[in-house]
Design goal:
Layout (H helix, E strand, L loop, with lengths): L8 H28 L3 H15 L3 E5 L8 E5 L2 H12 L1 H19 L3 H28 L12 H31 L3 H8 L7 H18 L7 H47 L4 H17 L4 H13 L9 H4 L7 H7 L2 H9 L9 H6 L20 H14 L12 H11 L6 H34 L3 H9 L3 H27 L3 H12 L7 E7 L5 E9 L2 H4 L3 E3 L3 H9 L3 E2 L4 H7 L9 E9 L2 E10 L7 H31 L10 H18 L3 E9 L1 H8 L1 H18 L5 E6 L2 E7 L7 H13 L2 E2 L5 E2 L2 E9 L6 H42 L1
Length: about 850
């Protein structure tokens, strides 16, 4: 039920206008009676009787649908005396008695003098208007209107009935006007829905006045007593009618409450599943009802818009969640699936006999003004106005809330969106009226929000312990909605995890996304992913997240030891174990005490890959719900981790020389780009070495390629041993190698170059059968960026230097051989001598 509204300026002006005009008229009539009245005692008696009768009014209850609650109208049988008094003593007496009767009757029900004075003024005006009508009709018949009992009853019938109608019209129109202005509702709609039907009550009241006139005329005033049974019959007839009306209203209210409860329960369940908020629905209802009033829609149409605000997306139950919550743009096929929801929603709601036309609102809220909407492609005014209104207000409010696929718009951005769509997507008139009255709607929303907050605070302040205990003991509807929301959230998170980990082939990226999303549904202080190392029975921490994550990174644990090692070997999860079992095996020392842990295996088919461990310092233990969710995530993670490991193996093969195990040409290209980017970023240099074995062809020719390959693999390790751990070393082709030495200059590596040459020259490879092989090496240096900024430029410079070195080494070998011959020749000659 809505609270009593605050008076508007328009309603205040109208109220005081009626009070002043009607009050002045009543005072004038009273003054005239006191000054010139000859029948004051009779009029006073009429007044006393009328007031006495008004103490037993007939209450007629009306279904005040406009204001969402019942309103009771009071019809006093004293009105029959007022009509009789008009005929016998003229308008002065009728206005005085009717106004006084209305004032006293109003005071009994409403303790506000302005409202009481308004009732007096309203009745004074309406009776005066009725009197003028009665007088005009009597004069049209050539009769004196106020001739006492001189007229026949038949002569009075038409003038008195028309006068009663005028009395009703003035009275009811004033009442509708004050209420319409006060409640900001349609005056005409309120009059038509709630007051028009009360006109029938004036016919029996006029009949009673005519009967009393006839009795007085024929039999004298004593026979007025004969009218008492008539009045009693009328009274009890009204009472019986009123009881039936109230019973019918109760049935209607119960049915409406049932429909409303069904609507609200279904809508809340949908909202709990979807990302729509309850505040969004309430705001749309306020916008929709306001526009319905401005466009002069009926109360039923306004209620249809409100129900549409709640239920327009009920058909999304038939749309898969991955489409509803897809972060990116829908594909054409996905959009076609989305387009079924208005039709499905309309079909669902058509099974419920709503008292208002909500089905067209739901079916057509995605139609467009230009005819390019769905599902029926309606255009312009072919689209129901209720659906056009909902389309505008729902779009405006929806874009101002965050969704998974977009950020919220500002108020101005949302207004601009409506203006851009006016004439194409939206009815331009609806957009214009909505934007024009938006401040008023927002004021109503703010008022409602404040009222709800005050109500909530009041309820919390008056909640007793017993009531709280009772509430806690009973099943919570809010809890049920929370479970729906959590179930939907769980499905979406698992779907997002599956999508996220499936997008990356990097093991580190896969595990990072996995643990980050896992923390949204299962709490942990630290989460760790352990992966079995290749060709060893140990698990290595491949990724750790949360507090103290650094302490876990790169740690290893033997298979079968600790919680994680046991879970890996047995492929069975462990719940709520002491985390220290893992910490000791991982040699992790933490000052913060951890209370519990849960570890699940990572498996691909029958192949164990590792373990997923969650450690908590806050939880006393993990619940069965936590464990269920973690196992569900682990099943998704098993496939993703297996794919990432397989990708790393393939990538390693593609980047590795099979013979030597060194990086190949592809890896050299990537390493050069990475090192060049780093050098440019920090304004540094690095040295590029080009190496070529001397005499390797002779080894192949002498011992065969198998021995040559074995020697090449061995000499690669000899060279590798001379370099720093972070230097890059790879096989270029054949017996040529390349090295990248970060943060060095050519003059700084002379000693390193000589050391490599010495190590290669001194190394003698020995194979089966006593086969021995030895070779030398030529090395050329180039510096980045002074000798070149690209790999090709550095290779040319280094290759030139390498062949210069090779030529120098050959000359040295030839000179050495010549020197040996020079030294040996005289000795031989001396021997001969």
């Amino acid at each position: 039920m809505e609270s009593k509204p605050k008076a508007t300026i328009q309603s205040e002006i109208f109220q005081w206008s009626v009070i002043i005009c009607g009050g002045a008229l009543w005072v004038f009539c009273l003054t005239q009676l006191l000054t010139h009245g000859e029948q004051l005692k009779t009029i006073a008696l009429f007044a006393v009787v009328a007031i006495a009768i008004s103490f037993v009014p007939v209450h007629i209850t009306t279904p005040e649908m406009t204001f969402s609650h019942k309103r009771t109208l009071s019809v006093s049988l004293s009105d029959a005396l007022t009509f009789l008094l008009l005929v016998l003593h003229g308008p002065l007496a009728a206005v005085f008695v009717g106004g006084l009767d209305g004032l006293i009757a109003s005071r009994r029900t409403v303790k506000r003098w302005p409202s009481n004075a308004f009732t007096l003024g309203m009745i004074a005006c309406s009776i005066f208007g009725a009197a003028q009508t009665y007088e005009a009709l009597m004069r049209l018949q050539g009769r004196e209107p106020y001739a006492g009992l001189a007229h026949s009853t038949a002569t009075l019938v038409i003038p008195l009935l028309v006068a009663a109608a005028v009395h009703f019209l003035i009275n009811s129109s004033m009442l509708s006007t004050i209420l319409g202005l006060r409640y900001r509702k349609s005056i005409w709609q309120h009059w038509k829905d709630n007051l028009l039907w009360t006109a029938v009550t004036y016919f029996p009241l006029t009949s009673a006045a005519l009967i009393m006139y006839f009795c007085v005329q024929r039999f004298g005033w004593a026979t007025v007593i004969a009218a008492v049974p008539v009045l009693a019959i009328i009274y009890f007839s009204y009472m019986q009618y009123n009881q039936k009306v109230e019973e019918k209203i109760r049935q209607i209210e119960q049915m409406n409450e049932l429909h409303l409860a069904t609507v609200q329960a279904l809508a809340m369940a949908i909202d709990a599943k979807d990302s729509t908020t309850a505040d969004h629905v309430q705001r749309v209802k306020i916008y929709g009802r306001g526009l319905a009033q401005l466009f002069g829609l009926t109360e039923l149409e306004a209620q249809a818009i409100e129900a549409g605000a709640l239920l327009h997306d009920v058909g999304k139950l038939a749309v898969p969640d991955y489409i509803l919550n897809k972060p990116g743009k829908l594909t054409p096929a996905e959009f076609e699936k989305m387009k079924i929801h208005p039709v499905v929603g309309a079909e669902i709601l058509s099974q419920v006999k709503f008292p208002y036309p909500v089905v067209p609102v739901v079916r057509h809220h995605h139609e467009r003004w230009d005819g390019k909407g769905y599902p029926d492609g309606l255009k312009g005014e072919e689209i129901p106005l209720t659906a056009r209104i909902l389309s505008v207000v729902d779009c405006f409010d929806a874009v101002r809330e965050d969704r998974q696929y977009r950020r919220a718009m500002t108020r101005q951005q949302a207004i601009d969106l409506l203006r851009e769509g006016a004439g194409t997507q939206f009815d331009p008139k609806v957009v214009e009226v909505f934007i024009e009255h938006l401040p008023q709607f927002e004021a109503l929303i703010a008022e409602r929000k404040l009222s709800l907050q005050e109500k909530k605070e009041g309820e919390e302040a008056h909640t007793t312990g017993a009531a709280a205990s009772s509430a806690a003991a009973s099943p919570s509807y809010t809890g049920s909605l929370t479970k729906i929301s959590e179930a939907h959230r769980e499905v979406m998170l698992l779907y997002e995890i599956a999508q996220s980990v499936g997008r990356s082939l990097s093991l580190r990226d896969t595990l990072a996304v996995l643990l980050a999303r896992l923390s949204d549904i299962v709490p942990s202080t630290t989460s760790v992913a352990l992966i079995k190392e290749k060709e060893s029975e140990t698990l290595k921490v491949a990724y750790a997240q949360g507090q103290h994550a650094e302490a876990f990174r790169a740690r290893t644990i033997a298979a079968g030891t600790g919680i994680s090692g046991w879970v890996y070997v047995n492929q069975h999860p462990m719940y709520n174990c002491d985390p220290r079992l893992d910490f000791d095996a991982l040699e992790v020392r933490l000052e913060v005490p951890y209370s519990t842990s849960v570890v699940v295996p990572l498996i691909k088919g029958d192949r164990p890959l590792g373990a997923l461990a969650l450690y908590s310092a806050e939880l006393a233990q993990y619940t069965s719900e936590h464990i269920r969710l973690l196992e569900a995530v682990a099943r998704l993670a098993g496939d993703a981790v297996a794919n990432a490991l397989h990708h790393e193996e393939i990538e390693a093969t593609a980047m590795t020389d099979r013979l030597t195990g060194l990086p190949n040409l592809r890896a050299i290209l990537e390493a050069f780009e990475e090192e060049a980017n780093r050098a440019r970023r920090y304004d540094e240099s690095f040295t590029f070495l080009m190496m070529d074995l001397d005499g390797f062809k002779q080894i192949n020719d002498t011992y065969g390629h198998q021995v040559g390959d074995q020697y090449l693999a061995a000499i690669a390790q000899v060279i590798r041993a001379q370099l720093r751990s972070y230097d890059f070393f790879g096989r270029y082709a054949g017996d040529e190698f390349i090295a990248l030495l970060p943060r060095t200059h050519k003059q700084e590596i002379r000693f390193l170059v000589e050391r490599i040459k010495t190590a290669v020259s001194d190394y003698q490879w020995q194979g089966a059968g006593g086969v021995k092989a030895r070779a030398g090496i030529s090395i050329g240096e180039a510096e980045y960026p002074s000798d070149g900024a690209t790999l090709e430029e550095l290779m040319v410079a280094a290759d030139t230097a390498m062949y210069a070195d090779k030529a120098t080494r050959r000359r040295r070998v030839r000179l050495g051989a010549l020197a040996e011959q020079v030294v040996q020749f005289p000795a031989k000659r001396s021997s001969i001598a």
